[in-house]
Amino acid sequence: MNFKTYIEATGKRGVELARIADQVSRDSGVTIAVAPQFTDLKTVTEAVEIPVFSQHIDPIKPGAYTGHVLADAVKAAGAYGTILNHSEKRIKISEIEEVLSLAKLSDLATLVCTDTPGVSAAVASLSPDMIAIEPPDLIGTGVAVSIARPELITNAIKRIRSVNGSVEILCGAGVSTADDVSKALQLGTHGVLVSSSVVKGKSPGQVLENMTDEVLRSK
Amino acid sequence: MNFKTYIEATGKRGVELARIADQVSRDSGVTIAVAPQFTDLKTVTEAVEIPVFSQHIDPIKPGAYTGHVLADAVKAAGAYGTILNHSEKRIKISEIEEVLSLAKLSDLATLVCTDTPGVSAAVASLSPDMIAIEPPDLIGTGVAVSIARPELITNAIKRIRSVNGSVEILCGAGVSTADDVSKALQLGTHGVLVSSSVVKGKSPGQVLENMTDEVLRSK
Amino acid sequence: MNFKTYIEATGKRGVELARIADQVSRDSGVTIAVAPQFTDLKTVTEAVEIPVFSQHIDPIKPGAYTGHVLADAVKAAGAYGTILNHSEKRIKISEIEEVLSLAKLSDLATLVCTDTPGVSAAVASLSPDMIAIEPPDLIGTGVAVSIARPELITNAIKRIRSVNGSVEILCGAGVSTADDVSKALQLGTHGVLVSSSVVKGKSPGQVLENMTDEVLRSK
Amino acid sequence: MNFKTYIEATGKRGVELARIADQVSRDSGVTIAVAPQFTDLKTVTEAVEIPVFSQHIDPIKPGAYTGHVLADAVKAAGAYGTILNHSEKRIKISEIEEVLSLAKLSDLATLVCTDTPGVSAAVASLSPDMIAIEPPDLIGTGVAVSIARPELITNAIKRIRSVNGSVEILCGAGVSTADDVSKALQLGTHGVLVSSSVVKGKSPGQVLENMTDEVLRSK
Hints:
The structure is a homotetramer. Chain A is of the alpha/beta class.
């Protein structure tokens, strides 16, 4: 669950949202991770027990990099892992391998976003912990990739598996309902990336509960 | 005092460093502000009474901007202001006016870094609260701009004052000793930007004390 | 007249378009400059007598900069000047002064694009030869800035003149008809920046003739 | 042979250099390709018969992209192919697949630069025509990657071949002498990328002749 820079997920409201996810995760037994903003990372990690992700880290070691995001700082704030290469924060191909290596050194799990089967395979060959397939044009639309373009997901899984047998595969973009989640799991993914549909919805807890119910039913 | 992404100023060590600055500032009566990393902003603002700055904010309003730094989030973390356009995080000219306006809306003081008299004047015409003149090639060298290129500072002040009578002017890059501070004030600046000389030094508190002593003597 | 990367202004079609502008300029006595793509610069400068501009140059001196655009190369191709900081190719504030200086060394006239009165004043203090005020949201709309937001232009002119008495001022974005040109000149600008309305129109020569007729009438 | 933005390879001097390469290639029967600056592309393609590459193209289709480099424009200038992702012009991972597809549509051969075995494999899974392995820290040093880090090349070849059986593999960075070329071919590459050692040398023709002699001897 990516908090992005939505005002509904900033500061105290971000901590509150993380607490709701924490509760739903504990009640259901289904893993939910949250990715709050940098400035809220520490408060959130102190408030919940579920895994907390940074939304990005920069390809830098400690040093003179004003305004950058250091893996060690994210780790010191209690993060479990980090999102990388989100479509709203793409990085250069030569940086991905470097950042994956820096994250590993700081013991941070890595979730790299991709958009096509080809890019998914390219990233898979760099061995991140997770890949999230997210066609950018569906993000925020409410039209789930798992429904609208199932073949994109299955092709991506095929291409990924040809070079990497173990990376976990998520799918995102437009995922809004329990049905979208169900379809995503049927296609062979391990989970979903959600954002606006939960963060900006009227009842985030209810939406998350519906989704976790569906996950349990799909098992 | 810019913490950059030095490991000596990350996590708990960043909070400790901020506390030292807080103590020296209170003892001397000289204003010291600190700029920790995003992930440490909240902990630092809770630990000290001196002004805390973010190292950067992005030219965005709340929304779908994964991995970006939102003015509202920085404000919610308790920041007093933000550094902008540091030589390690330059922004586009069309973004500077936008970010200044966003910072103002979030009631954040703005300190914009510049490198030459011309760019200082250009930025001054956009009315930030403070300008810090920092030639990048002297940063981290221990050779202070106020000693090595006094005419750059005086020219920049002249150019700035021709378009803006009220912006506060700081100087940075290589500022390491009380003498550097003294010289900077003599040239007509209101203060200095320091980083590695304090952050990475053996005794940050001692260096800050020497500098604040000099400020009091210069009055 | 900015050719951008429109297919109608690429390769031979770009040369043809430049020839039309050359003819209209000679017939009317009104200055028209063209800005073709980098790859067409030399062929265009050899085909016409009107001033030819590059669409951009990079802030680099000769050296190891694969894929960059060197002022000397643009000059060697016969260019008269260069556009800088177009809204589709914004540069950092610290780069603008550097590029202006490099362009001057290569004897290239400089036209810097801006979007607001504040940014126009900031750029004006760096002394380019020309400033083109172009609010990006009107570009390509057919709604001319001179009609839709005359006060933006007059405010920008006022702000520019407070720091720079000699820079030539153009206005662009949405300029499509002779009326738009007329209005722009009435507001006190020296000319206009046009692109899609001419480049992608059915009869570029006719549109240019209407505009130059209007310029002559406005004198 | 990458001309970069060296002054020795700009304008007429670039055409002259390309003619020398053309002559050596025809005399020896060894393929040499040249990559001049955008502004010299057309003049060079008209002056020589050897393949001419662009140094970069942007991930754009025809449209409103001032200052960008369009595949169609490069093709219209007579180019045979394009370099992509050079260490001096890195692109985002999501852009590489897009640019490869645009290049293919414009019938341009593609040569993608990489730095490590991992990134080489990642790029290989996107099926460019050629990959050039170039560790950036050796570029321009005169210390050839084929001599200094042979295992980097052999590992990269192994990783590339595990995902792509047909892409041609070059090696670059520091390649200066016939011996460097010989070693590169022995390691299993199909050729080399050269730049400063030839472009900035006293006798480009002589260096190229020595290298092509070595290629013929290595067969």
